[in-house]
Amino acid sequence: MESFTFYNPTKVHFGKGMISMLGTELKKDGISKILMIAGGGSIRVSGAYDDLVKVLQDNGIDFIEGWGVRANPTLEKARELVKLAREHEIQAIIAIGGGSVIDTAKSVAAGFYLDDVWDIYSRKAMVKKALPLYTVLTLSATGSEMNGNAVLTNTETRQKWGTGSIHMYPRVTVIDPGYQFSLPPKQVVNGALDTIAHILEYYFVSVEAFTTLGINDSLQCTMIEMTDRILQDPADYMARASFAWTATLALNGLSGVGLKGGDWACHQIEHSFSALKPEIAHGAGLGVIFPAWIEYMAERDPKRFNRWAKNVWGVESISEAVKLFRDKIKSWGSAVSLRELGIKESDLPTLVELSMISDRIGGISRFSASDVEALLMLAL
Amino acid sequence: MESFTFYNPTKVHFGKGMISMLGTELKKDGISKILMIAGGGSIRVSGAYDDLVKVLQDNGIDFIEGWGVRANPTLEKARELVKLAREHEIQAIIAIGGGSVIDTAKSVAAGFYLDDVWDIYSRKAMVKKALPLYTVLTLSATGSEMNGNAVLTNTETRQKWGTGSIHMYPRVTVIDPGYQFSLPPKQVVNGALDTIAHILEYYFVSVEAFTTLGINDSLQCTMIEMTDRILQDPADYMARASFAWTATLALNGLSGVGLKGGDWACHQIEHSFSALKPEIAHGAGLGVIFPAWIEYMAERDPKRFNRWAKNVWGVESISEAVKLFRDKIKSWGSAVSLRELGIKESDLPTLVELSMISDRIGGISRFSASDVEALLMLAL
Fold this sequence. Notes:
Two copies of one chain form a homodimer. By secondary structure, the first copy, chain A, is of the alpha/beta class. Chain A folds into two domains: about 10-180, Rossmann fold (3-Layer(aba) Sandwich); about 185-380, Dehydroquinate synthase-like, alpha domain (Up-down Bundle). Chain A has helices spanning about 20-30, 40-45, 50-60, 75-85, 100-110, 120, 185-205, 210-230, 235-250, 265-275, 280-300, 305-315, 320-330, 350-355, 370-380; strands spanning about 5-15, 35-40, 60-65, 90-95, 135, 150-155, 160-165, 170-175. In chain A, the strands form two sheets. Chain A has a six-stranded parallel β-sheet with strand order 1-8-5-4-2-3, with helices on both faces. In chain A, strands 6-7 form a two-stranded antiparallel sheet. In chain A, helix 10 (about 265-275) packs across helix 11 (about 280-300) and helix 11 packs antiparallel against helix 13 (about 320-330). Chain A starts with a strand and ends with a helix. Chains A and B meet through strand 1, helix 8 and helix 9 of A and strand 1, helix 8 and helix 9 of B.
C-alpha cells in the first residue's frame, strides 16, 4: 500500500425524500440566491426538479435556472453559465442532474473567479477558490457527486480534458435513488460500466493494497449484481440504492487508496471515441475498451490480474474472466467491440492520434502510439 | 438500505514518514501552542514521540505534554487535562497514541468549553464547539482516529459511557503503520477483535444494504488475513498498513451506511467486563461475547446470519461459522470464554446488573436482563 492522503469533505444525504435536507443546509450556510444548473429535462420526468423548486421556495431561496448541459459537456456551455452567474451575482451553485451537469457546475463554481475556465484544464491556472456547490444527483455513473474532479470538452480543439481541486468538492450532495426509477435501461448499463471502469482504473496498480483491493472486489460484485437486478425489476428500490452508493464510492477516493492515483489509460483512450463520435456514451465506450485492455496487459504481466479473475469472476484463468466480463456486458445489451459502436478499422489512425493528445497515457506502463493501436485492434 | 447522512471531515495522512505533514497542517491552521496528550510511554519505544517533538520544534510550535492516559480511559484524567489546557491557554490538542488517548483528547477538546466534561456523556449538555484536534495514531483498534465518538469511564459510578459530536472529529490524523512494529502480539489481536466487532455491530442489522455488506465482508476477511500475516511476520509492512486502514474504515461511518446505526449490544455488555475487571482488554472481551451473541441471535432469526457464514467463513452452516470464528480467535491466543478471562458463574449477576445500566441494549432486538444472562451463560 502506497502512502496516501484521504480527505473528502462532501456531506451526503442519501435516501428517499432526503432533498428536504437541502433547504436546511442552504439556510445554515446563509445562501439566499443560487444558480441552478441542469440538463435537458429528464429531471422534470423523475420529479427531482419539482421537489427542488419546492425546497428552494419553502426556504425562501431565490434562484435562477441555467438549462441545457448535454452529455460530454462543453467548455462553451460552462463559459455561458459563468457569464449568467456573474450577471445575477449569485452566491452558490446547485447542480441537479448527472455527472455532466455536476462537472459543468464545478467548472462554473471555479470559473466564476477566473479569467477563463479553460485555464484550469490547460494547466494555465490553479483553482484558488470556488463558489459553494450543492448537488442533487439524478443519474449514478460518474461519481462526480462526491469528488473534486471535472471533465469538459473543448469542441474547437477536440480536447476532452479533466481537472480537479479541493475547492471543487460539492459541499452537500443529495442522492435519492427514487429519482432514478425513470431512467432507460441503457443509461443504467452505461452507469454500471462507467462505475466498474473507475474501480478497474485503480485495481490493477498494486497487488498489495489489500484493504482497498478487497473493497474493490466487493464494489465490482455489488455493481454487477445490482445491474442485473435493476434490469430485471426497474422498481427494485434496494437495488437502485446500492447501485447509487456503489457508483459514488467508486470514485470518491476510497477505491483508489494506496494505489498511486490509478492508471486511467482506458478513460483517456475512450475519450477519443467521443471526440470522434460524440453520440458514443462514455460508459458504452469503456465497456469495449476495458476487456481489451485487460487482455492486452495480462499478456505482459499476468500476476496483476489473478485476483480479479478469482474474486470477481470466480475463475482461475484471466482469459476466461475476460470472456465472462464480455458476456455480462453483452447480456446487458451493450457493445463489446468498436464495430458495434460504429467505428471502422479505417478510423483507428484518427483514434490513435486523438488519444495521443494526452500528455501521458497509462500508469502501470506508459502507452506509445503503437500500444494504443494494438489495443484498439484487439477491441475492434 | 436505510436513509443516511455520511459526512467525515477528517483528513488522513497515511504512510511511512507522513508525520511530517503535521507541521504543514498546524502552521496552515495558525496553531502556535498545543497540548500533547499521551499514554504511558510506548510512543517512546516506537519512535513516534521523538518524531512528533521534532516536527513541532522544526515548525516553531510551542507545546506542553499531558501524559498518563491508560486503557479504559477515565473521566478523572480528562478533567485533569482540561484544567491543564486552560492553565496554559492552548489553541489545539494533539493526541499521540491509541484509542484511549484519542478519546481522552476528544473529551478535553470539547470539555475545554464545558462546565464539566461528563455532562456530554450523561446527556446533560451538547457539544457546541471544541478545540481543533490532531492525532498521531500508534495502535490501530478503536477507529477513534477518524470519527467523532469517544468513550470514558466514570470510575466513581462504574459507568463506561460514550458520546459523539461533529465537533469532535480530528481535523487531521496521521497513521504511520511503521509505529506499530513494536506492539506486542496481544495488542495486535485485541485491535483485530475490536475492529471485527465494530464491523459486526452493524453487519447483521439488514440483509439488503448490499454495498455496505459487501464492503463489510471484505473488511472482515482482510482483517483476519492481515492478523494472521502480522503474527507470522511482525515486520510485514504491507500487512501492518492494511491492518491499520481496515481498523480505521471499520468505524469511520462507512461500515455503518444504511444500517440504522448498528446494534452495539456486544459493546455495551462487554463494557461491564472492564467495569468488573479493569484488566480485561476491550478487544479480548469482545472476542468472547461476539461468537456467543451470534449463536444466541441466530437461533431466533437465522436468515440474518447466512451471508456472514458464507462470505466470511465459506460455509453454509451458521454454527460451523461460529466454530471457525472461535477457532481463529483461539489460534491468535485469545480467550473464547468468560472463564478464560477470569470471570466465574457467580460473577454473572453483577455483569447483568452492570450491563443494564445502559438505557437500552440491542438494536435488532432489545435485550432484557434475562437475555443478557442467557447470553453470558453461553459465553461462560
